[in-house]
Amino acid sequence: MTGWIAVDWGTSNLRAWGMEGDAPVWEVATAEGMSTLDPEGFEPALLAAVGDRLDGPTDVFACGMAGSRQGWAEAPYVPVPAPPGSGDAAVPPVSDPRLRVRILPGLSQADPPDVMRGEETQIAGLLAREPEFDGAVCLPGTHSKWAHVSAGEVVSFRTAMTGELFALLKSSTLRHSLGEWEEAPFLDAVSEAMSRPERIVTDLFRIRAAHLLDGDGTGTSRLSGLLVGAELAATRPWWLGRPVALIGAEKVRDAYAAALRAQGVPVMPHDAATATLRGLAAARTAMAG
Length: 289
Prior knowledge:
Helices cover 36% and strands 25% of the residues. It has 289 residues and is α/β, with parallel strands linked by helices. The strands form 3 sheets. It has a 5-stranded mixed β-sheet with strand order 3-2-1-4-6, sandwiched between helices. Strands 11-10-9-12-13 form a 5-stranded mixed β-sheet, sandwiched between helices. Strands 5-7-8 form a 3-stranded mixed β-sheet, with no helix packed on it.
């Protein structure tokens, strides 16, 4: 039996968990992310993933890109400052009577313009565990988010396209000069980019030149370090003088933790899936009244 279903619906993937109370009892993941579906395709994709687990009418609480304008049903953004996980959920039309779906809204910021979908649920999960947290939250990924959290609210946030730029540049002329990731050259490149972020467009080509002239095999480390360093330089107002909660998948989270610790920043790592489930469970409890 499944009490309810938690769903994190990203651009590239769908992850769903069967929940009993606040505890997951099963998990399934597919590659049917938002980018592969039209609005009519979301219900069939969800049923393909979880349909054999449905014994009757089941509540489904979803966060992420299912609530985008190109998703299943648009869940309007809640402007900051606001508690993460607040606002009205979208209720998409369904044909299968076993599904009772609610899609959580994201957050928006007017000046400078910015939006997030999905990450706010992870921040809500952090606050469910640490309700007195006051500081910065970093959520590294394809589009890294930096949020200032205080008094239970997201006060402001910024997005950095670091992960997407890394993926694009890995397919550029630099693809001939990459190798295995290593922490030491990564941190060296972070330091370089933070001290001279205006030179990143020229420092990037040094990766190619160093490989051609010296056989340097640290291209992957230097590429990621230069981009993360430029991100840290741009987001200094969010992390300087504040504790930073890092929420993400282990590999990318550990890289950001090393970069921040090298700047003397206290870092508290958190698992992304765990934070997501806590945030969805908190939203379910709040909506139940």
